[in-house]
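An instance follows:
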Amino acid sequence: MTTIKDSVHDHIAVEGVAAALLDTAAVQRLRRIAQLGTVSLAYPSANHTRFEHSLGVYHLACEALEHLGVHGQQAERVKAAALLHDVGHSPFSHNVEAVIHRRTGKYHDDVEELLASNPVGDVLRSHDLDPSAVAGLIAGDGQYGQLVSGELDVDRMDYLVRDAHHTGVPYGTIDHERLVRELTFLDGELVLAEGNVQTAESLLVARALMNPTVYSHPVARIGKSMLRRATERLIDDGISTAETIRRMDDYDLIAALRSTEATETYARALDERDLFKRAVWAELDDVPDALLDADHERVRELEADVADRAGVAPEHVVIDVPSRPSMTESTSRVVVNGEIRRLGQQSPLVDALRAAQRSQWRFGVYAPEAVTDGVGGAAASVLGLETDGGLVSEVRRGHYATLDEFDADAE
């Protein structure tokens, strides 16, 4: 058994198959993958990694399994899946995942091939665990997959607390110990036991507050967009492949960007935090549905059109279209009066949080600071935006600031 001191959960005891997996290259690589990617450009202390998060998920999985009375090989499978759930992440976590997926068809939780061929597979098999079964749990398959990847998973419980701790914001603070203690299976579904509607609501509120403040902070989104553009250039120019980049760590990718002529400008901008600025920052109702539903190729065409209208180089326009607002946590299940109910059906908070989420959603167009005025005007014309309140809102030091300032600008 190995005992590791953790900043969130204090001491974590790692034993069994997890102890054997701990020093494999695939798990140790997670030490070099930033948990929050470019969020550290807004919150300098957000330098925690996927490695420590994976340890935290393993720890909470152990507690949940003990509470649920799950032991033996089934418990070992879940513990292995908890520790390994992030080994499929590309550099900078989710920041370049869309780029990788477009070219490989794989997301970070598509790890069956990786576990089967990697030395990790040898460790699993030596403990009589099928790598395919562990990969299935990571993907959320089956009853116990809900513990690793589901609406009430231990992954979410750890990252909310850990991300709040390292960014210094109070919004992700949840009673994760009670959440774990109140988990139960009912008719094969992972639910929160009777009397825990408020416990489920706390998880929902924490995620709803962390999203605009941390995960979708404008500076992080701009950094992510620039990193994606640079990574695409590496692939498009034949410097690297999506499969190769998928297995890189953060340092590998940054080194590749720095050493490639076509991407060194992006690398320097990220190194020096000399980022693009917001030329457009528009609310959901101001954006045409056709733009919200545009695929990647169409967005790139529109970027070229905006650049041409503004008279700037194509690489100086980045259009950032977030997914439509969603709240998967509202499907969490709680037991009320002996029956399973979705939180969205039981809690009056859900509708209010959905409305808040919709009001916080923003569409972005980014460009170098010197050309934001021209790019903003061109984008409004080309994209058919309706922005009566101005092209940019919520920029504390900007020229187009309005009174609508909901987010915490942590610059």
